[in-house]
Every structure is written in structure tokens, then in C-alpha cells.
Specification:
The complex is a heterodimer. Chain A is of the alpha/beta class. Chain A is built from twelve helices and 16 strands. Chain A has two domains: 245 residues, Thiamin diphosphate (ThDP)-binding fold, Pyr/PP domains (Rossmann fold); 137 residues, Rossmann fold (3-Layer(aba) Sandwich), CATH 3.40.50.920. In chain A, helix 11 links the parallel strand 14 and strand 15. Chain B starts with 6 loop residues before the first helix and ends with a helix. In chain B, helix 2 crosses helix 8. Classes of the chains: A alpha/beta, B alpha/beta. Chains A and B meet through strand 3, helix 3, helix 4 and strand 9 of A and strand 2, helix 4 and helix 6 of B.
């Protein structure tokens, strides 16, 4: 039987980790992820998990120990945020290229500098080319559900890639919400047991992990990483379907909210999508045909499906909680990707970028409403007034 | 029964690091690895920091290792093996895999150990993982072309501490990493050299059976960096031991013990003059550096004797 509990996002994630009961967790505390590892440490101290909890001296060692443990055939998890992820960077790439199915809870926080402990997506956007599968979560429930699904996605023999599950720092990680926690046995049955194919602890078949790879093979190994990414969507959707059958929650590559007959659309990920849904409902009551597209799977990026879902709208606004400095018009990463996807799939509606919420600045319903109203004007005139707008910033 | 540490008995065992690897002729690292692995009868799993030993033994699609082996990156051999060891303990405890008395080892050069990997090493031994970390100390970043490290001896010419017209080589003494590791109060720390192979092998056995984290610092000649002939490796290594630049000792549960006392303590100059990296020190204007080095070697040796209760 599932139960409904009042949990902060980090507690929901820690609960999923308890239920998954990985063989090894290696993690280092960092705001706003810390309460995840604290809660998990409680589970270890109280004997509620069989996990070997490796309390490393840095995030670099956290990811390094994860690589060692995963190569040894263990089911492995970690959690981090912002600068912690940045310190892991080198090994984040090695985890993916070694095809190790490590699962990470990533609590999105602004990267220094200046130092700031609050939410934005500059941390995850930096790892978008690292070879990890990346899932976004609107709230604690989704962070919990995505983490459970991540284990099966990562370990699928056709994939064998690490997965990062994102949630917004403080807004979700520390915001208490009603979360449905499934029965322990059902979660354990859903994730099943991990059967490693190439364990470092297989003494009869000694493996060499991480050899020197020159121009004669390196390129082929990179191509194999692409092949794994290519297979990932099918696995992600199959895992989502199984999850829906078991727990009655429907997940896809992204969520379309009142998008079917919408004239204008906003694309926004993580917690701000929840705020945007409220705005959509309000504007719909005024009779305005507005919709929302909320990305869930950011890597691999479902370009074709997103373009198809947005094909009928007359204007699109992408909202970015990060900046790609020096990129086209200094836009955000999500905008760049969606603009490219729409253009390459032949969609020519006006599209604009709205950067918001950097360093944890609040995004208010009124601001999202103004974005929709901008899009109606763009739909009418056939062009956006400004390609990139920095919402609620003091210029 | 453990294999007797005699060449005849040891020769019966299968080599764990096979011939055909691409380390240089006369490289100390492969001699050390073969001696140490021959001393361990139990199964081993090895992590290797980026460095000569790693690049020269595993050029894809080949590997010279007959035992499980992982390379992750430069600075994290200790944290990587800590993850492997944690996975092993976890899965044995849960009954997922059988107990197999595996000995976990990590190998890193002085660059990967004294410098960039010191934090990961400190953390891993503090956490008490059961593994032996071996630093093969050749006194510079040899793999990238002989750049100075904090293990480089005073006055040595390296490509980032070159002997120039004004600056005569490296300006600092070697960091005492073995003492730093002893200060972690782990069960076993030792300093060894392949020229005293039985001592090295006995220490290896103690290290892997100490019941906790162990560290060994092993002097590893690199003839490319030290500048000597390829057949002089063992002889020049032993000179470092006999001049007390590289004393052989162990720290077992906090007890310091000298494991070798030279019959006659040779002047450090005897070791220096055999190596091209110190050639400039023998010019009149630089000879004072040999005196400075001798004083420092003497001071550290006297200190070690006091720690070992042998003063």
C-alpha cells in the first residue's frame, strides 16, 4: 500500500534511495542537497538499508568512488549540487564513457561566482554534453518517481549510461509537499536486482577498465556512446509505461499541459512549470488559448517529438533558468536547443527566450502571464519584439 | 602456507603483470609491481592512477594485467579503489558475492600521490578502507616529460625546474610523504626500495594483512629522468638507500622501526654523481647545494633514528 506523506523534495529522494537500497552510496554534503545525505545517513545508522555509505572528502572523490564501485558491479548512487557537480566534472565524463549506470540526485543550484546557494540551472546545463541521461522534475513527487525509474533506465543493457535526476534547489528540495510514497516491496520489485555484465570483482574473467585509448579506437567508443543515447528514449518510455502500470503515474519524454489547442506556448522545466500551470489555468478562464510544454528528458533531447507537439502554436516562449554566455544572443541553453529543433523540423513560428530566476530569484505568476501576453502579440505580428529578455532584472 | 620468498619458489607463480608491456628498459615501476604482486598469494584487484605504469600497460585493445585492474583518472586512484572495496564489502555482507579474501591495491606515481592525489589518498585512508596504496616515487612527472613534483630532490634538473644560468635546478627539498601518511595513524606505513627486494616483499605482506589502510612509498628509478644507464637501476637505487636519502623503515601501529641500517653511511654525493639530473651541482658555483642536501639528509636520518629508538 502506498502512503501520502508531507515531505520536502530531498526527503522524498532520500526515501527513494532507502527503498532502492543501493549497494554503495558515495556522497559529499553541499547546500541544498545536504538534507538528502543526512536523511540517508539516518537510514544507514538505523539499519534500514544495507548500503555501504562512503562519506568521501570531496565530490571529486564521490564520483571517483562511484566509478570504482559501479565497475565492481555494485548498484551505486550519489547526490550533489552546483559547485559539487563542478568539482566532479572530470569524473562525470569518465562515468559516462565507462558506461557505468550510476544514478545521481542533482539539486539544481547556481554555480559560483559570485557564490550563491539558491536555485538555477547553470549546474546541470554544464553537464549536458557529458554523456549522462538527464531528467527534470517539477516537484518532490516527480523527483521521487524519476529517481526510481532512473535505476532501471541506467542499468538497461541497451543503455548502460549514468542518469542525473534534477530538482530545483530549495524551491523543491526544501519545499514540503504531499508526496505519494509507494510500498517498499513494490519499489524493490520495480527496480529489481542489478546483474552486472562486466564486474571488476569477477576474478575468473579479469577486466581492464579505463585503458589508454588512442586515435585508432577512441572515436569508435564515442560513437558507441551515441548508440546508447539513441537507444535510451525507447527504454525511458518502456520504463515509464511499466511505472505507470505499477504506480499509476504517467511519464513521457515531456509533459504537454493544455497544449493541444493552444495558440501560444511556454516551455519551462522543473518547479517553474508548476507556477506556469497556474497561469495557464487562469488565462484559460479568460478564454485565452495558452499551453505549456514541460521538458522531462533533457538528455537525450526529444527534438522531433517536441517540434511535433509545438507545430500548431503561433508563438513559443522558452524560459531558461541559465545563460549560455556568448552563445547566440546570449540566450539560454534550452532556448538554443528548442529554436534549433523547431527550425530544423520546418517550424517557422516566432520564438523568444526569457531568462529568469538566476541565483534563486523568484518567478511570479504575473511575470509568466506577461510572457504569454508577449507571445500573443508575437503571434499577431509574426515576429518577436526581443529575442532574449531577462525577466525581472535591474538593468 | 604462504609462498616462500625465495627466487626458486616465487618463479613458480604466474606473473600478474605480463611481459610485453611498453615500460622503458630498466624502469623501476615494473620491477616494483612484479615484486610486490609476487609477494601476495591472495587474489588482487588494482586501481592505477594516470601515469607511466598505466599508459604503458594498457594501450587499448591490449592489457598487460592478468588481474582485475581499473584506471579512472590522475588524482583519484585512492578514492576509486575505496569505491571498489566498499562495493566488495557491501555485496559480501549482503551475500550477493562470495568472500574471496581479495587484496585491494592502488598504484600511483609521485605526481599522482604527493601532489594531485594527496587529498583523495588522505580521505581514503582516514575512512579506513582495507587497501594498500603504493606510491612508486621516481621523483618527477616522468610520464609527461620529467616535470618537477614535490618529491623531486633538491637541485635536480627537471623540465620545469631546469638547471639554468641563474637557477640551479629544483629549489626545494622533497616532501616527506611517508611521514605524512604515518601521521594518519593507519595500521601500516612503510618505505621500501626494489634493491632490497625481500624487505619490499615482506613489507608488502604485512601491508595487505594489516586489517586496514596501508601505505608504502617505494623508490622507483626512472633512467630517462635520473639520467643513468638502463642496467644501473638497482645499483643506483641502493645508493639512495645507503646514503640515507631513502631510508628503509616501517611504522606498524604507530611503532617506527628501521628495517635496514647501512653498514657504512655513504655521502649523498655518491648517489648524486651517478645521475645526469644532478650534473650541474658539481660545477664549483653550485657545489654548496650538495652540502645543503647532505645536511638535510643527515637531519632527517637523525630524526628517523630517534623515531625508531635507534639514536
Amino acid at each position: 500500500m502506498s502512503t501520502f506523506e508531507a515531505l520536502a523534495g530531498n526527503e522524498a529522494v532520500a526515501t527513494a534511495m532507502r527503498q532502492i537500497d543501493p549497494d554503495v552510496v558515495a556522497a559529499y554534503p553541499i547546500t541544498p542537497q545536504t538534507s538528502t545525505v543526512q536523511k540517508f545517513a539516518d537510514f544507514v545508522a538505523d539499519g534500514l538499508v544495507t548500503t555501504e555509505f562512503v562519506t568521501v572528502e570531496s565530490e571529486h572523490s564521490a564520483m571517483s568512488a562511484c566509478v570504482g564501485a559501479s565497475a565492481a558491479g555494485a548498484r551505486v548512487m550519489t547526490a550533489t549540487a552546483a559547485n559539487g557537480l563542478a568539482l566532479m566534472w572530470e569524473i562525470v565524463y569518465i562515468a559516462a564513457s565507462s558506461r557505468l549506470p550510476i544514478v545521481m540526485s542533482l539539486v539544481n543550484r547556481a554555480l559560483s561566482g559570485p557564490i550563491n546557494i539558491h536555485c538555477d540551472h547553470s549546474d546541470v546545463m554544464g553537464m549536458r554534453d557529458a554523456g549522462w541521461i538527464i531528467l527534470f522534475s517539477e516537484n518532490g513527487q516527480e523527483a521521487y518517481d524519476n529517481l526510481i525509474q532512473a535505476v532501471r533506465i541506467a542499468e538497461h543493457p541497451d543503455v548502460l549510461l549514468p542518469v542525473a535526476v534534477c530538482q530545483d534547489g530549495f524551491i523543491t528540495s526544501h519545499g514540503m509537499e504531499r508526496v505519494e510514497i509507494y510500498d517498499d516491496a513494490d519499489v524493490k520489485a520495480f527496480v529489481g536486482s542489478y546483474q552486472p555484465q562486466w564486474s571488476l570483482l569477477d576474478l575468473q574473467n579479469p577486466m581492464t577498465y579505463g585503458p589508454l585509448d588512442f586515435y585508432d579506437y577512441y572515436y569508435e567508443h564515442k560513437r558507441q556512446q551515441v548508440a546508447a543515447m539513441e537507444k535510451a528514449p525507447e527504454v525511458i518510455l518502456a520504463v515509464a509505461a511499466a511505472f505507470n502500470r505499477q504506480f499509476n503515474r504517467d511519464y513521457g519524454m515531456f509533459e504537454s499541459y493544455r497544449l493541444g489547442d493552444a495558440e501560444v506556448a511556454v516551455v519551462v522545466a522543473n518547479s517553474a512549470a508548476g507556477t506556469a500551470k497556474v497561469v495557464v489555468d487562469q488565462l484559460r478562464e479568460e478564454g485565452l488559448k495558452v499551453g505549456l510544454l514541460k521538458p522531462r528528458v533533457f538528455r537525450p533531447f526529444p527534438a522531433q517529438e517536441m517540434s511535433a507537439a509545438l507545430r500548431h502554436v503561433k508563438a513559443v516562449a522558452v524560459m531558461d533558468r541559465a545563460i549560455s554566455f556568448g552563445a547566440m544572443n546570449n540566450a539560454g541553453p534550452l532556448f538554443l536547443e528548442i529554436a534549433a529543433a523547431l527550425a530544423l523540423h520546418g517550424e517557422r513560428m516566432p520564438i523568444a527566450d526569457y531568462v529568469f530566476g538566476l541565483g534563486g530569484r523568484d518567478i511570479l505568476p504575473g511575470e509568466i502571464e506577461s510572457v504569454y501576453r508577449d507571445m500573443f502579440r508575437a503571434a499577431e505580428s509574426g515576429r518577436v519584439e526581443q529575442m532574449v529578455t531577462y525577466l525581472s532584472v535591474r538593468e | 602456507m604462504a609462498t616462500k620468498l625465495t627466487p626458486k619458489e616465487l618463479a613458480k607463480n604466474v606473473e600478474r603483470l605480463t611481459p610485453g608491456h611498453r615500460l622503458c628498459a630498466g624502469c623501476g615501476a615494473s620491477i616494483i609491481v612484479r615484486q610486490m604482486l609476487a609477494a601476495i598469494d591472495e587474489p588482487v584487484v588494482i586501481a592505477n592512477a594516470t601515469g607511466c605504469l598505466e599508459v604503458a600497460t594498457t594501450i587499448y585493445p591490449y592489457t598487460a594485467w592478468r588481474v582485475p585492474w581499473i584506471h579512472n583518472a590522475f588524482e583519484n586512484a585512492a578514492s576509486t579503489i575505496s569505491g571498489v572495496e566498499a562495493a566488495y564489502r557491501s555485496m559480501v555482507r549482503q551475500g550477493k558475492i562470495p568472500e574471496q579474501n581479495i587484496k585491494f591495491l592502488a598504484f600511483g606515481g609521485d605526481g599522482g600521490t604527493y601532489d594531485i592525489g594527496l587529498q583523495a589518498l588522505s580521505g581514503a585512508v582516514e575512512r579506513g578502507h582495507q587497501f594498500l596504496y603504493v606510491c612508486y616515487d621516481n621523483g618527477a612527472y616522468m610520464n609527461t616529460g620529467i616535470q618537477r613534483s614535490s618529491a623531486t630532490p633538491l637541485g635536480a634538473h627537471t623540465t620545469t625546474s631546469p638547471a639554468g644560468k641563474v637557477v640551479p635546478g629544483k629549489q626545494q627539498h622533497r616532501k616527506d610523504l611517508t611521514a605524512i601518511m604515518a601521521a594518519h595513524n593507519i595500521p601500516y606505513v612503510a618505505q621500501a626500495a626494489p634493491s632490497k627486494w625481500r624487505d619490499l616483499m615482506e613489507k608488502t605482506r604485512k601491508a595487505v594483512n594489516c586489517g586496514g589502510a596501508a601505505f608504502m612509498n617505494v623508490l622507483s628509478s626512472c633512467n630517462r629522468g635520473w639520467r643513468h644507464n638502463t642496467d644501473e637501476t638497482i645499483e643506483i637505487t641502493q645508493l639512495a638507500v645507503d646514503c640515507c636519502y631513502w631510508p628503509l623503515f616501517e611504522v606498524e601501529n604507530g611503532e617506527w622501526r628501521l628495517s635496514y641500517t647501512p653498514k657504512e653511511k655513504r655521502p649523498v654525493e655518491d648517489w648524486l654523481k651517478r645521475q645526469g639530473r644532478f650534473r650541474h651541482l658539481f660545477r664549483p658555483e653550485n657545489r654548496y647545494l650538495i652540502d645543503v642536501m647532505q645536511k638535510e639528509v643527515d637531519r632527517r636520518w637523525e630524526h628517523l633514528l630517534r623515531l625508531c629508538g635507534a639514536a
